[in-house]
């Protein structure tokens, strides 16, 4: 089954404790991205990757890191989480980053930073 | 950057009613998609529709790119249609704030 998976689905952590949220897709997609969703704001893009070893900042990259060492994986790293990073996070992928592509979203990761 | 506004922000319907959700955008777009986020948080792609009209069962969407808006129609609504509907535009998927739809039995 074609899908985007994220782990963990739920995470409670404390300020300053490094964490990684994994994202994996099995569709051989080139383009992957991370979003955060906050009430009243819709989804905002954090980082995106056009292909392996190619990443770039989205609208709200501060406090986050990403890497794209393999085509299928695009982990999101919070080096020193803070309470304002409490949010619902989505990973997405599409065949390419072109204008004609449909994006497929993972199930989401709910993060609470105390 | 491009602004995306959705209306109404909230909509409550009785089962069986029809509804129209609107997405306005401030500049020309080369990609527009509609998504449904169900009550469990899952995001489902409904339509890829940068222009024209598409239909899928009880749902249809129309984008009038020259006038910078898109409409999502839901006919004969069901309780399973409840959730938040988002439109998103362009390659960087700039999202609107969403329309929260509640369908009551």
Q: Can you tag this structure with a few keywords?
A:
heterodimer; A: 114 residues; mainly beta; 7-stranded mixed β-sheet; 4-stranded antiparallel β-sheet; 11 strands; 50% strand; B: 105 residues; 6-stranded mixed β-sheet; 5-stranded antiparallel β-sheet; 0% helix; globular
Q: Brief overview, please?
A:
With 114 residues, chain A is mostly beta strands. Chain A contains no helices and eleven strands. Chain A is globular.
Beta-strand level of the residues of chain B, as a percent range?
over 45%
* Euclidean distance between termini CA atoms of chain A: 36 Å
CA distance, first residue to last residue of chain B:
40 Å
Element pattern of chain B in H and E: EEEEEEEEEEE
In round numbers, the mean pLDDT of chain B is: 93
- Strand content bin of chain A: over 45%
Account of the 3D structure:
The complex is a heterodimer of chains A (114) and B (105). Chain A has 114 residues and is mainly β. Helices cover 0% and strands 50% of the residues of chain A. In chain A, the strands form 2 sheets. In chain A, strands 2, 4, 5, 6, 9, 10 and 11 form a 7-stranded mixed beta sheet that branches. Chain A has a 4-stranded antiparallel beta sheet with strand order 1-3-8-7, with no helix packed on it. The radius of gyration of chain A is 13 Å and the shape is globular. The N and C termini of chain A lie far apart (36 Å). Helix content of chain B is 0%, strand content 57%. Chain B has strands at residues 4-7, 10-14, 19-25, 32-37, 43-48, 52-56, 59-64, 69-74, 83-89, 94-95, 99-104. In chain B, strands 2, 4, 5, 9, 10 and 11 form a 6-stranded mixed beta sheet that branches. Chain B has a 5-stranded antiparallel beta sheet with strand order 1-3-8-7-6, with no helix packed on it. The N and C termini of chain B lie far apart (40 Å). The mean pLDDT of chain B is 93.
